[in-house]
């Protein structure tokens, strides 16, 4: 991902950030809760109850942190 043409150290920062952010965004889909119900496109929950609870436990630190960010004035982002 950090090789040309996706990333070029001699290029403007904007396309470099945009291209690499897109790749990282796609990688995070491997760790979201919607993937738990879509293996091979089948809509069923294949995680155990313990898996689901552990996911929520581990993911909550990200949503908690994201919820501290201010959009504008005193409006906070809804991290969940």
Walk me through the structure.
This protein is mainly α and 80 residues long. Helix content is 42%, strand content 6%. It is flat and about 50 Å long. The protein has a domain at 46-80. The chain starts with 12 loop residues before the first helix and ends with a strand. β1 and β2 form a beta hairpin.
Shape type: flat
Note the main sheet.
2 strands, antiparallel
* H/E topology pattern: HHEE
Chain-averaged pLDDT:
80
Uncertain spans, ≥5 residues at pLDDT below 50? none
What is the helix content?
Answer: 40-55%
Cα-atom radius of gyration: 17 Å
Q: Which percent range describes the beta-strand content? A: 5-15%
Q: Give the spatial strand order of the biggest sheet.
A: 1-2
| N-to-C span | 28 Å
Structural class: mainly alpha
Secondary structure tally: strands: 2
> What's the total helix number?
2
Overview features:
2 helices; two-stranded antiparallel sheet; mainly alpha
Summarize the topology:
Blueprint: H1 13-28, H2 49-66, E1 70-72, E2 75-76
Antiparallel strand pairs: 1-2
Describe the structure concisely for a colleague.
The protein is mainly alpha-helical. The protein has two helices and two strands; from the N terminus they run H-H-E-E.
